[in-house]
Task: structure prediction
Amino acid sequence: MRFAELRLPVALLLAAVLPLPALAGAEDVRRDITSRMAAQFPGLSPADLAGGSAAFDAGRRAEAERNAPGPGAAEAIEAGQRIWKRKFANGRSLAGCFPNGGRRIAAAYPHYDRRVKRLVTLETAVNQCLKTHGEPLLDAGDPDTMGAVLAYLRTLSQGRKIAISVSSPQAEARFEEGRRLYFTRMGQRNYACASCHLNHAGRFFGDTAIPAPVGSAAQWPHLREGRPMTLQMRVRECLERMGAAAFPAGSDDLAHLDYFLSYLSNGIEIRPNAWRAPLAPGHW
Ligand code: HEC
Result:
């Protein structure tokens, strides 16, 4: 990206990230960030903020509305459904691994699983099922397979309110790890996620308004140029643009960020397969 084009001075971004004080727990952090956004953008509800860049940019909003559902959504959902229902060598299927064939489950992911002592994202749950049945795993970074499956699976929870639980010390520790990563400066440009998304939400960076952290887990996968991009794929893109080595697809680091961001979207309806602008050079 060309820094000369930034409408937001880099020096501003590099100013203090304003880390939140050490707070008691996930719900305090969520309330603090949500009330900061409400004070800054009194005209925008959390559901409006879920529109990403479009929440602050009338041109983008009009384009998103014209392109709803995202072009390519129907094909992605159908491709995902095929993978979901495909019979494994042993006659089982992904659909058979989840209650109600996966209906109405997405709003509670990621969650902390006490048995395996790890966060379970939708991606890890899908791959755990494949592993149990001796099938090859899906690449969590691939829009055409994992992206399509999640486009379908999240459609089965369309309209449900995100309801992530952080209800044990172990779950709190995972949330805190996600929060810590979000506030940590990384990469050649020395940005933290929070430098942009918290401190400068709504400001233009190049030609793109910076989305707020609240709501950013509601509309994924995003349809970009017809391909379904998951939340984790988007986070990897931001990391690459920060000049940081992107955490590997399916890694614990991405799961922690996913848990943190999803918790900040609690109470907002899942509206998957929303349009997002194409990724152009010099454009986030
Ligand atoms: C230099 C500023 C900057 C930094 C640093 C940054 N992002 Fe972004 N991010 C953006 C911009 C701008 C977009 C909007 C891209 C678009 O819609 O075209 C975006 C988009 C996103 C989205 C999608 C929001 C939506 O609904 O469209 C998520 C999620 C996200 N970023 C998370 C992160 C995380 C997590 C980090 C840290 C690992 C991070 N970002 C670091 C600027 C940044």
Notes: The chain is about 40% helix and 5% strand.
